[in-house]
Amino acid sequence: MLSDIAFNELDQLPALSPATPKLIELANNTMADPKELLSIVKTDPVLTGKILALINSAYFSLPERIYSLNRAIILLGINTIKNIALSTSLVNALGTKEQNIYFRHADLWKHMLAVGITSKLIAKKSNVDKNEIEHYFIAGLLHDIGDILMIKYYPEEFHQLTVDAKEKSTSITELCHKKYQTTPNILGAKASKLWKLPDVLCEVVEFSRNPTKDCSNLTKTVHISDKICRKHEIGFTCDHSDVNITDSDFEFLNLKAVEFSSIKELIEVEMEKASIFIE
Amino acid sequence: MLMKVWGNRGSISVPGKDTVRYGGNTSCYEVRSSNGELLILDAGTGIRNLGNSLMGQGSIKATLLFSHTHYDHVIGYPFFTPFYIPGNEFNLYGPVHYEKSFEKVMYDLLDYSFFPVRMDEFGSKLIFHDLKEETIDIGSFKIETMYSNHPVTTLAYKITTDDKTIIYTGDFEQWSNYLAGDPKASEEEIEEIDIIVEEQLNRWIQFFKDTDLVIHDAQYTPEEYGQFKGWGHTSMSTAIDTCIKANVKKVLLSHHDPNRTDNQLDELNIRWQEYIASKDTGLQVEFSVEEQSYQL
Prior knowledge:
The complex is a heterodimer.
Chain A: H1 20-28, H2 34-41, H3 45-55, H4 69-76, H5 78-89, H6 105-125, H7 133-142, H8 145-153, H9 155-167, H10 172-180, H11 184-194, H12 199-207, H13 217-231, H14 247-250, H15 263-274
Chain B: E1 2-7, E2 28-32, E3 38-41, H1 46-54, E4 61-65, H2 71-74, E5 89-95, H3 102-108, E6 125-131, E7 135-138, E8 141-147, E9 155-161, E10 164-168, H4 187-208, E11 213-217, H5 222-225, H6 236-245, E12 250-254, H7 262-277, E13 284-287, E14 293-295
């Protein structure tokens, strides 16, 4: 059963960023500028998830849930972050070449990063409180953490689902639910809860593909960001359903679709900045 | 309450002619309540002399509070003679590390490749406790902890008994914005971190508020601090300014740099007395001296 995944084995998830070799180099170099290391950490969904899981864990027993990566970095200290980055980077990569998933790492990372960047751009446009803008980035970065779990624990099933979804121009969510009575989002949310990620992030992971009207603006923003990135084919996505973006998508923010007509260029500029360490 | 300094040196013990007055042993402090209950803060090399001073007084029951587990704060622990005496009982509290429990870290320190005696061979009873940010009561002592800022999980301790309060910072470096001045960082991110750092500093000052005695890491002069930023220690001026803001009565500047000589500490003492005199404050500033006692 897909639901039997050993979610608590967060340690077994590898870093996703294609800049992982650079990360290892920086973590091993005592003279390296920690800012460079942190800039890679911040663009990796698995590392971000692990750091947030650690700061929200029983080890620290902090009174409030933390979902700011910068707050986690300040509290844990750069040395601890460095150790987590190094140990995560050394975990074997996901999947195998034969399953053709190995080559999609960079694309999956690109998609999750792009959704993080897009969510942040939309948050800025909709005048979200300055102190919360980075949370939008983190939520977008983590939204497909369920896909990473699927690739790690069920590579063959996941691969087949993505092939089928592409053939039928549909979403993997629907196919997965029909076949296994669960979805990557449900698995991701289950894991996020177990890792004690803040509730708002768990909601994003569970509902970003199909938000309900009761979902937070954060989840709805990540949802529309995901659609924008799919429309512009930025990175890998296992959702191949039609993408049609209209004004109704932005209604909850009192914005119009036309206000985002040049967002692709803005995303590309930010993606370029985040990719400087990729060799 | 009584506090006695048994070790105040940072990083490594430095016996010799240049450290004979202020002391060369690494971190260890004794705290006694008026009814004789014993707390020991850290187990640097200073704990050996403390242990010897306790011998011949009958069975010993004491609590050891560890700020963190870097060598200079734990290395004296297997040389604490009372550990070897059957009938003695010790509760040891320290910060949990995300990879290992406090007990496991201390156990590994006695691996046979480091030391010939295993923890199981200590004759006394040792009970280990993982500590987080919390408040606990130990006898008549109220112990409050706060996560400090150092390259490993570190706790600062606030100890209250007999209506008096002592704070021991352990090793500590002021929180700062690691993206400040980075042209590649976004304005929002720099602002976000500024707010987080400010919150942490305010919590720190609140933790210190109206304390009678603070034993503060002050390894560097302000001039030296720039080249050691990120090493996890504070400049003397930062330690003093924090205590002024928090209305502390007395601060003992401690965790002396291993290269600092007695004569240099004398000169620095003059500098900081002049500094304090120029401020509108009742704070007393001293450099800690090994084997000196403070009655509160």
